[in-house]
What does this fold into?
Amino acid sequence: MGLVPVSDLLKAADAGGYAVGAFNCNNMEIVQAIAAAAEAERAPVIMQASQGAIKYAGIEYITAMAKTAASLVNVPVALHLDHGTSFEQVMQCIRAGFSSVMIDGSKHSLEDNIALTKQVVAAARPVGVSVEAELGKIGGTEDDIHVNEADAFFTDPEEARVFVRETGVDALAVAIGTAHGRYKGEPKLDFARLEKIRSLVNIPIVLHGSSGVPGDAIREAIRLGVRKVNIDTNIREAFVDRCREIIAAYPDEIDPRKILGPAREAAVELIREKIRLFGSSGKA
Ligand code: G3H
Ligand code: 13P
Ligand code: ZN
It folds into this structure.
């Protein structure tokens, strides 16, 4: 199959009351793990690359790997830009063949975020690329965006209504208590806020910083309208922990395949568990 827009996957998820997993990839093994997990679960899946991943791997490699993975499996796969911060970055990804982009204007004022997001929608929609935007600041450290916890603030439901009406975005990332990276304590999600947002905007909601959020909270967020769940940190942990275990057990090992192969398997298992949690298993 070729790459599909995220909006197609999220429309089906909305109708079915489940969420699609959006998994960050930086290298070949993780791209392969995402594809293998989706195929094993018969699930639609989103591969996403941050600006940092694009800088690390190169946009040609990221696009070619995702396209190859999509062509080898029999489930729908989207390639999505995660936290794009400029119109230029979005255009580079659209030209390279991404099927979906996120424009993260959350560090700007509401007016400037609306203006930037509108510009992206105007460029992306005619070429069939879907657009996710962010309103409110999600805590933690993102590539090119540093929000300390005191600065992080939640999405205002009324602003969300205006933002969606003005921009026409396909999906909205909201700040309701999740944060990127590892949590210090247990995250507390503001479900009342999520419910209010969802009652005012009629588009799929995206949950960022979902690694480490307890399963019950993820299920409740999906019940209240979350249709795309972003996972990066948990994949990094599964992958790197397995690398560490192998290196500790076999300190003389010099074949990268003997280390990265099992790490890839660990990532497959983790991603399969997440897909089942999100309810998208069997939905391809
Ligand atoms: O939301 C951020 C993702 O975890 C990507 O992280 O910018 O280090 O690739 P990164
Ligand atoms: P985590 O790394 O906390 O899972 O967040 C991923 C994310 O939101 C990517 O945009
Ligand atoms: Zn994010």
Notes: The longest strand covers residues 77-84. The beta strands are 20-24, 45-50, 77-84, 100-103, 130-135, 140-142, 145-147, 171-174, 205-207, 226-231. Residues 24, 82-83, 180-181, 208-211, 230-233 surround 1,3-dihydroxyacetonephosphate (ligand 2) (CB under 6 Å). The CA atoms of residues 96 and 173 lie 24 Å apart.
